[in-house]
């Protein structure tokens, strides 16, 4: 068969009357299509799976054979099986039958049929509907192929990025070790200017290492499937402990902090390490993206769903409404000229969203420019008992640690 012939659309015609198959075949051949015939349900189904036609024209009443259905509904059963199989699900199906009852039309639609013609059919109407459904199928196939190629390219890009990022980590760690040794005086004394330059180089190298950790961390969150390490958490005690951990950083930044947790807020099951990091990210954002002396409120109460509603609120510059959704996407952040630029990979809120959703909860923001921000988190009392995206809590993303960098560094 020539290449042009194989590119001509193939149509399967199934009817238990050979004369009807021949009539439809002649009409479709005259319109430029290739035709494959069948006279019963099993034959139509086998031809569909073997030859993958571009369109099927089915009679309703045909011998069912081993399909195990009434002969008067064979076409419906064939259509259901075609649409159920991923290999053939996108093949359009036209029912052509002498039946003209509304019930039959409903059954055809429920079986997955795309169109319905009554015998005797009009040749021009048949041709128009065949052309219309074929155009739709070819457009859908092209879209599916483009999507598949896009996914392949995205996977290739992500794999390449992870390989490069991972390979960067080892030499960068050696650079940091050498800079630390130099600052400790292992290579002799330095002038104050040289020491400042080395310290600046070390700080930039640490920023780069933190960014690498961010990238690797989010990759683990997206790909790993591990169980949450659940334990009972009391909302008030949890918020107080988070506030205590950040106490030194709050004093350094002149921040005013208030913990407000209702006694009615229920004890819930959660991964303490992940949730500490979530709240740490939100507090870090409030401190770094606001002017000095920001007020922060950590609140918890019973949600109407029966779970816990947490809120981290600040009176900072706020977030414009158009950014409320995109800030949770990877590498997205809101920059403001009045706030000094800080190192931020744009992954902190991405991590928050992943960790909260891993608990079966949700996170969103309410904010307006000049009116501060309120990040709300709703968590169920009992997360879903399934494997969920999570990551090791021993390697938090740089710049969004639960324990403030100023507390950890000497």
The SSE string, one letter per element, is HEHEHEHEHEHHEHHEEHEEHEEH
The number of helical segments is 12
Q: How far apart are the first and last residues' alpha carbons, in Å?
A: 78 Å
Gross morphology? elongated
What does this 3D model show about the protein?
With 410 residues, the protein is α/β, with parallel strands linked by helices. It folds into three domains: 3-121, Rossmann fold, CATH 3.40.50; 147-223, no CATH class; 230-408, Heat Shock Protein 90. It contains twelve helices and twelve strands. α7 (192-223) packs parallel to α11 (348-358) and α10 runs antiparallel to α11 (348-358).
Topology:
Layout: H1 3-7, E1 10-14, H2 18-30, E2 34-38, H3 41-51, E3 55-58, H4 74-84, E4 93-97, H5 102-110, E5 115-118, H6 123-183, H7 192-223, E6 230-233, H8 235-245, H9 247-253, E7 256-261, E8 268-271, H10 272-288, E9 295-302, E10 308-314, H11 348-358, E11 362-367, E12 373-379, H12 405-408
Parallel strand pairs: 1-2, 1-3, 3-4, 4-5, 7-9
Antiparallel strand pairs: 6-8, 9-10, 10-12, 11-12
